[in-house]
Amino acid sequence: MTTDESPCEILTSERYSRPCTAAFSESLAIAGSLTQPAPAEIQAREIHLGPTQKRHTLVLDLDNTLVHSTCCSSSPASEGRATYTVTVRPYVSLLLERLSPLYEIVLFTAGSDAYAEAMRRKLDPEGTMIVRALGRSSCIVTKEGRFVKDMRILADRELKHVVIVDDRVENFAFQLGNGIPVAPFMGDDEDEEIIYLIEYLEDLHAEDDLASVNRKRINLVY
Ligand SMILES: [Mg+2]
Predict the structure, then answer these.
(1) Is 188 a known active-site residue?
(2) What is the pTM of this model?
(3) For 98-125, what is each residue's pLDDT tens digit?
(4) How many whole angstroms from 76 Cα to the centroid of ligand 1?
(5) Residue 191 known to be catalytic
(6) How do residues 7-34 score in pLDDT, each as one tens digit?
(7) Of the listed 61, 124, 166, 167, which one is catalytic?
(8) Is the domain 37-218 a CATH 3.90.180.10 member?
(9) How remote is the CA of residue 221 from the centroid of ligand 1, in Å?
(10) What residue ranges do the domains of the chain occupy?
């Protein structure tokens, strides 16, 4: 492989500072094919986060971004309910400690609202670092049947101050400039992606218009 081929598939901090469309081409193709929601769809899912001291908001996906969950173990004690085994990605607690003073942190999963809330309590038991956990009821459902996390639902936040981290580009299809794609976490205990992400976000934090700076750096295009 020459250095020109798919450089973004390699886990290095360089992925955050050079065009990386190649590594996410399949996801980008899906993202580009999705139908924009009607304004009423977005309005129906509006969320007000309330007053904040933080200038910027960091939205974090859960599955395969911060954690890897495997379904299902069933035992007589579980009474037929699915029990998930959750592996937290290495350095996630460091990420929350380092970035919660800089960003207002919101979890956002296409999983159930109850799962979102349970994971918030698991990752931040004291409730001091994550301000809100959003689940499936906050996702836009496109005509194609995809659940998309549309940042326009954050009614009292400006889009230029919001970034979203997700392992699937199509999940933030309607705000590519706000998106930071990460390599999916499948349970590898030597995974170091979060270290690079922390460095990138600590650096990005100094900017005012996060979305335009991020758009230029990550350079995702349909
Ligand atoms: Mg995910």
Answers:
(1) no
(2) 0.89
(3) 999 999 999 999 999 999 999 999 999 9
(4) 30
(5) no
(6) 344 344 555 554 456 678 888 889 999 9
(7) 61
(8) no
(9) 20
(10) 37-218
Q: Based on the number of CB atoms within 10 Å of its own CB, is 75 exposed (0-12), middle (13-18) or buried (19 or more)?
A: exposed
For residue 62, the CA-to-ligand 1 centroid distance in Å is 6
Q: How many A from CA of 158 to the centre of ligand 1?
A: 24
